Hints:
The chain is α+β, with helices and mostly antiparallel strands. The chain has two helices and eight strands, in the order E-E-E-E-E-E-E-E-H-H.
Amino acid sequence: xxxxxxxxxxxxxxxxxxxxxxxxxxxxxxxxxxxxxxxxxxxxxxxxxxxxxxxxxxxxxxxxxxxxxxxxxxxxxxxxxxxxxxxxxxxxxxxxxxxxxxxxxxxxxxxxxxxxxxxxxxxxxxxxxxxxxxxx
Length: 136
């Protein structure tokens, strides 16, 4: 079933009804979400579109797709997504929303452990040789 709208702003992909279609997975996304004032990513796949220079300004001319590449914990304990634009390479931090997929957030958070940037054999060999300082 394809959702129909009368008017859509082509630059933001936002329909006049208060929702937009995800640029990555096609999911219809409501503008309002608990925990954020400027909904800018899909709660299902967490991808976004490069629209802002600063949160909510919708002033970016890029319009590229923003891939969720990491999560981090802000001072105070709030989680935020790091998005990287596939067109221009900009990085943006975006607060998570109350309806974001917890499974997708966790899969992004554990990615460095599940897919390390170096061969694990090398790290283990270094530990055996004593290259790693002992703490404690």
